[in-house]
Amino acid sequence: MVRAAPSSRFFFEIGPLKFEVVEYNGSLPTLVLNPYSWTKASNIILVDSPVGTSFSYSRNNRDVRTTDFKQVCHLHQFLQKGGGHTATEYKPPDRVFCNV
Question: PANTHER family this protein is in (predicted)?
Answer without folding.
Answer: SERINE CARBOXYPEPTIDASE-LIKE 19, SERINE PROTEASE FAMILY S10 SERINE CARBOXYPEPTIDASE
